[in-house]
Amino acid sequence: MENVKTPIVAIIGRPNVGKSTLFNRILGKRIAVTDNKPGVTRDRNFSLANWRGKSFYLVDTGGYIPTAGEGIELLVKRQAELAVDSAKLLLFVLDGKDGLTPLDEDITTALRRHAEKVILLVNKIDNEREERNAAEFARLGMGEALPVSSIHGRSIGELLDLVVEKLPEEEAPPDETGGIKVAVVGRQNVGKSSLVNKLLGEERVIVHELPGTTRDPIDSHISHKGRRLTLIDTAGLKKKSRIADEADLYSTFRSLSAIDRCDVALILLSSVEPISVQDMKIASLSEEAGKPAMLIINKWDLAAGADKDDYRRIIRTRMPTLSYLPVFFASALTGYGVNELLQRIIGLHDAAKNALTTSELTKCLEKAFKKYGPPAAKAKRPPRFYYATQTSTTPPTFLAFVNEPKSIGEGYRRYLIGNIREEFGFEGVPVILKFRRSE
Length: 439
Ligand code: GDP
Ligand code: GDP
Known about the structure:
Blueprint: E1 8-12, H1 19-28, E2 46-51, E3 54-60, H2 72-86, E4 89-95, H3 102-111, E5 118-123, E6 146-147, H4 156-166, E7 180-185, H5 192-202, E8 204-206, E9 220-224, E10 227-231, H6 244-261, E11 264-270, H7 277-288, E12 293-298, H8 308-318, E13 327-329, H9 338-352, H10 358-371, E14 385-392, E15 397-402, H11 410-424, E16 432-437
One guanosine-5'-diphosphate (GDP) is lined by residues 186, 188-194, 237, 298-299, 301-302, 331-333.
């Protein structure tokens, strides 16, 4: 999972040391969370974060460990190993009140060969007097541990400075010769490998030698009607786990890096399973990353006689903020929809690159403002819209000049984005609309 533009920082450690408190502290305070849509961000254990202009994905691996049950020790160690494979940096959290435990030592053993990736933290050091508790952790032989208090926010700024200092400079994304880069993401067993195989089977596979070790992502290349498509990291799809939490964490790491590298994300759901929180989290990642995406209801062969519109309604209700994603029905088993899917991927990719002129964009927003003005209660002065212009593509970003930017609430912004999306064919494309004051 190298070549990732936005690095992953994983919080690891045994249960109860304060991982989730630290996660929330980092995101809730002092850090600008890029995604601040209510209901999507807060109850999740990964998020895009930014400190001093550097972006990274923060993952709380503790969010994938059951709070009770047998085998926690084993799972904690395996998750540490998984994190080493996928993350650029690990925040290894220890408990300054409990002191060093055998499980801490086991985790250390699992991390030993990757000491350069590890930042050791002694949490629950709530005041200066307790700082001496941190000393005993030097016995782990992983260097000095930074004493912090996640509850009180002690030394969290220092920690984040250290994180961005240790993160590598942004790597240039790999060359563009592979054509459209497609990420196939979703929970375990929704049919990702099957769909990828079907896609590869349908079309001419371009053999591509990738040098290197087992850790390199293995991409597969195909061509469809003269266009090249790259299916990202198809080797990584094969990893399976019988432990649900481990599988979820693995799919999270994989989805984060695949979405980061892609031009188009295919978010797979299974027609026979209810939409889970994990599904919704993965789906919202594409929006956070600003990538065009579509939801694919796979295993449609098993949904005998079901009504597609019913499915669409369920999805709209469960994921209201993602209702702009097209919903596509497919079966990796029978091949239903698979050929059309390739065409849809190309269409989505091309639509996302659409650049609008100032005049057509302004006309569209003028019409929208005329139809419904912004809610009056918010406006100090009668709202006025002057003009709008596109400032960048992928994701399409627009700047609208108005007399009172503050009078434009989140709901109204979404309404305007909806108008742009519909008029210019940005279905499935995250659209950013900003406002600036003008007289
Ligand atoms: P996790 O299982 O590692 O994610 O741990 P949690 O974040 O759920 O925290 C476990 C317990 O430790 C909770 O009761 C927290 O309130 C407490 N805790 C977390 N951070 C601190 C801290 O900095 N100081 C103190 N005194 N308690 C903390
Ligand atoms: P992954 O973990 O997401 O890569 O899922 P797999 O591709 O390994 O598929 C998990 C299971 O679902 C396998 O037993 C597949 O044969 C089955 N499967 C995948 N796609 C379909 C489909 O469209 N229809 C049916 N009936 N089964 C499918």
